[in-house]
């Protein structure tokens, strides 16, 4: 919900980049994905957002086919500032590729946006279909049992400054937890706390057993699962489930 027109969808996409710069040196998550992309001759990045991961891949010399897909027009508009990658407005479930990619990725927990079970299943089938036999699917999701949302509350709101000098405050508020589905609002406000925009999101959290069932049903075999971005083992106490799956 936009409360006034001084904070637009384009501003929200710019804020995303300010808060989430792609940095393969500083962030183990970004290194994990950038290494996977560098090792694949063609890559489909599902939920690519502003496209930073694929921008960096090109900067680092990736010479193969790179395609980014996202349903958020403002995020994709930022991605499109570079035309050396194919950008597609759409959802995972709407993908119509057939056997074209060596690797599919969903970085920065984009996988958790697949909240509805039918949409999750349809998305996995479409991603599987987009891959060649033996192609990889690399993604992360937060582990349900770690209950990360308990740390998301209005007190977490820090202040950030956009490149044009505007200072903004932001915070999260959890509204509902129903099994694996967590609904929360995200508020962007002026430094004095006056809200400019409130958006509501539902994310699906996962446990390995059901996640692996969804993957199997869509034609994937799980090759590796890690509990952190340093490739540590997946345990009952892990905060993340990091999966490398193969198209069968
Ligand atoms: C947290 S952002 C991650 C963006 C990017 N992957 C990154 O690493 O910065 C999640 C992205 O998933 C996208 N998304 C939401 N629902 C989706 C769907 N059904 N299919 C594909 N992408 C989706 C959102 O628009 C958003 O850009």
If you had to describe this structure to a student in words, what would you say it looks like?
InterPro entries: Methyltransf_25, SAM-dependent_MTases_sf. This is Class I SAM-dependent methyltransferase. Keywords: Methyltransferase, Transferase. The chain has 248 residues and is α/β, with parallel strands linked by helices. It folds into two domains: 179 residues, 3-Layer(aba) Sandwich (Rossmann fold), CATH 3.40.50.150; 58 residues. It has a seven-stranded mixed beta sheet, sandwiched between helices. A hairpin with a 5-residue loop joins strand 8 and strand 9. Helix 1 packs across helix 4 and helix 2 crosses helix 3. The protein is globular, with a radius of gyration of 18 Å. The N and C termini lie far apart (42 Å). The mean pLDDT is 96. The site of S-adenosylmethionine (SAM) has 19 residues, from helix 3.
List keywords for this structure.
single chain; 248 residues; alpha/beta; Rossmann fold; 7-stranded mixed sheet; 4-stranded antiparallel sheet; 25% helix; binds S-adenosylmethionine; methyltransferase; transferase; SAM-dependent_MTases_sf
């Amino acid at each position: 919900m936009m409360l006034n027109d001084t904070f637009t969808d384009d501003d929200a996409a710019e804020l995303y980049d300010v808060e989430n710069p792609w940095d393969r040196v500083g962030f183990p998550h970004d290194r994990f994905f950038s290494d996977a992309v560098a090792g694949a001759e063609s890559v489909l990045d599902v939920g690519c957002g502003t496209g930073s991961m694929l921008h960096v891949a090109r900067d680092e010399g990736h010479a193969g086919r790179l395609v980014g897909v996202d349903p958020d027009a403002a995020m994709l508009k930022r991605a499109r500032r570079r035309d050396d990658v194919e950008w597609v407005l759409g959802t995972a479930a709407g993908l119509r590729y057939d056997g074209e990619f060596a690797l599919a990725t969903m970085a920065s927990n984009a996988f958790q946006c697949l909240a509805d079970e039918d949409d999750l299943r349809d998305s996995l089938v479409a991603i599987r279909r987009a891959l060649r036999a033996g192609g990889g699917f690399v993604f992360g999701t937060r582990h349900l049992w770690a209950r990360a949302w308990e740390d998301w509350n209005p007190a977490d709101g820090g202040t950030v400054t956009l490149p044009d000098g505007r200072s903004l405050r932001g915070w999260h508020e959890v509204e509902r937890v129903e099994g694996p589905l967590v609904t929360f609002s995200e508020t962007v406000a002026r430094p004095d706390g006056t809200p400019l925009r409130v958006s509501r999101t539902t994310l699906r959290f996962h446990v390995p057993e059901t996640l692996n069932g969804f993957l199997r049903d869509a034609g994937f075999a799980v090759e590796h699962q890690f509990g952190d971005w340093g490739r540590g083992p997946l345990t009952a106490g892990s905060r993340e489930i990091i999966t490398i799956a193969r198209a069968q």
